[in-house]
Amino acid sequence: MTTPTLLPHDTQETIATIARVLHHAAAQTGRQAAAEGPRSVRHVLSLGLQLAAAETALLVPSQLDPYWPAPTQDDPLELLRIAERLARNVPIEDETAGFSKIVVSITDLLREASS
Question: N or C end: fewer C-beta atoms under 10 angstroms in the chain?
């Protein structure tokens, strides 16, 4: 899957896309953890992804859906990489206050998923 092309000024849509990508990555990781069994380390990663997705969704305006449409990519690691690339397009402004926490979460999750 290629990174969605977004206009630089379309910050809210970018944040909504990040929420969708994180939500889908959490769901995929949860399914993988369930298949691996109750001692799978993916359960913790899935919870971290769910939390990041929920925190990102809170920043999405009500007119945008933070869960739909779902991305076509199914690999959670690749989805995290997409979220990280998209996060680079979000400007640091008053209207994006709170987004820096999402960037830190994505970075931490990406490091955890890659190890």
Answer: C
